[in-house]
Amino acid sequence: MHITQLNWECLLHLFSFLDKNSRKNLAKTCHKLLEVFQDPLLWPLLNFYSPVELMKDNFLLGPALKHLSICWYSERVKVCNIEDWMKNSLQKDFCKRHENTVSDFLLDVCNRCPNLLSLTLSGCGHVTDDCILQLLKNCPYLKSLKLENCVRVTDHTLKAVILHGASLRTLHVDFCRNVTQAGLERVREKCPSIMLRAERSGNMIPDSKPEKKLMLEKASEKLVQL
């Protein structure tokens, strides 16, 4: 029996065991398998480990997407999470290359994935409060929002949670150093049903200037080597 002779449910099940690249490669073999690849039901879960992955064509965004995770762990994250006014010209040039990549992708999610239930962002230094606001407005069923080391997230995101996070039950803003203790207290007061976690946020001690300068120099050296 040829694989294309299997019924649709079996094909979807087989595809579900493959990673994004393998699914795309298999879809190139024939028209029927391409149709399976393009079935929104195949894509309830998406995990990304680099902004570069967001620009590939090996996945599909659609109403079936329920769980999305973008977790970026590398030395480059340190550069993106440096405050803009502290960046040197080399670091600013580096950040411009992908400054809007994650934000543009999330706005696309707003338009195509209204049934999203959970979103995890880690190391996404260019994600803004406005982007999170749009997600909360356009994804009314969002139950879990986990943000980590997202330097541009501020109390405006917490206000958006209070105003538009009616379904939200879990909120993490770990290592989001521009979130304040006052903002966290407002969330606890206005939304007592939300399980809030804010490790090293609110009361987080800012980096001292000598330490920051040393980190900038080391990050610059590593970027030059790439």
Describe this structure in words.
By secondary structure, the chain is α/β, with parallel strands linked by helices. It has ten helices and six strands, in the order H-H-H-E-E-H-H-H-E-H-E-H-E-H-E-H. It is globular. It starts with 7 loop residues before the first helix and ends with a helix. Residues 205-216 have low confidence and may be disordered. Keywords: Ubl conjugation pathway.
Which descriptors apply to this entry?
single chain; 226 residues; Monooxygenase; 2 domains; 6 strands; globular; FXL22 protein; F-box-like_dom_sf; ubl conjugation pathway; Leu-rich_rpt_Cys-con_subtyp; LRR_dom_sf
Sequence stretches where pLDDT stays below 50 over 5 or more residues: 205-216
- Count of alpha and pi helical runs: 10
Q: Strand tally, please?
A: 6
Tell me the fraction of residues in β-strands, as a range.
5-15%
Q: Give the class-level CATH name of the largest domain.
A: Alpha Beta
Order of helices and strands: HHHEEHHHEHEHEHEH
In the CATH hierarchy, the architecture of the largest domain is: Alpha-Beta Horseshoe
Describe the main β-sheet briefly: 6 strands, parallel
The percent of residues in helical segments reads 40-55%
Strand order of the largest sheet: 1-2-3-4-5-6
Based on secondary structure, the structural category is alpha/beta
Quick recap:
With 226 residues, this protein is α/β, with parallel strands linked by helices. The chain has two domains: 1-42, Monooxygenase, CATH 1.20.1280; 43-224, Alpha-Beta Horseshoe (Leucine-rich repeat, LRR (right-handed beta-alpha superhelix)). It is 42% helix and 12% strand.
